[in-house]
Specification:
The termini are far apart. By secondary structure, the chain is of the alpha+beta class. The relative contact order is 0.21. It has a domain of about 90 residues: Ribosomal protein S6/Translation elongation factor EF1B (Alpha-Beta Plaits), CATH 3.30.70.60. Helix content is about 30%, strand content about 35%.
């Protein structure tokens, strides 16, 4: 069966439990149509770059799915009918990612305050040691 990654954005005024219920409902649609859910990740309430239907934030959820295309078509149809879903995206992948997704790894890095590898910056040298004081040596006196 084909593998998919499915992400959907839910309205900001929903509670976390309502988003989990919506995820359970969509997962049930997939299993009823002969598919399986490999992984579910709730990415949290995130700020959007631009407003979508008067919402500045949205709850993001990822589903790693192994299902026939008909199951995903039905899930997308249900999401189009739901007023709680702002956007959705389904991508077919060759294999599912092991461990946490990139969004979850990013939030772990943000919590630690780690800025990652900065090795690409190169040597910055002796900064400021070769500079002359301003105006001391080059100043021309008016008395000359």
């Amino acid at each position: 069966m084909p593998l998919y990654e499915h992400v959907y954005l839910a309205r900001q005024d929903l509670s976390t439990t309502q988003v989990e219920e919506l995820t359970a409902k969509l997962s049930a649609v997939i299993t009823e149509n002969g598919g399986t859910i490999a992984k579910t990740e709730y990415w949290g309430l995130k700020s959007l770059t631009y407003r979508i239907s008067k919402n500045r934030k949205a709850h993001l959820t990822l589903l790693n799915v192994e299902a026939p295309a008909a199951a995903l078509n039905e899930v997308e149809r249900q999401e189009r009918l739901s007023e709680d879903v702002l956007r959705y995206l389904t991508i077919r992948v060759e294999e599912h990612e092991e461990g946490p997704s990139a969004m979850m790894r990013k939030s772990d890095r943000d919590d630690r305050g780690d800025r990652g590898d900065r090795g690409d910056r190169g040597d910055r040298g002796d900064r400021g040691r070769d500079r002359r004081p301003r105006g001391d040596d080059d100043a021309v006196s008016a008395e000359d």
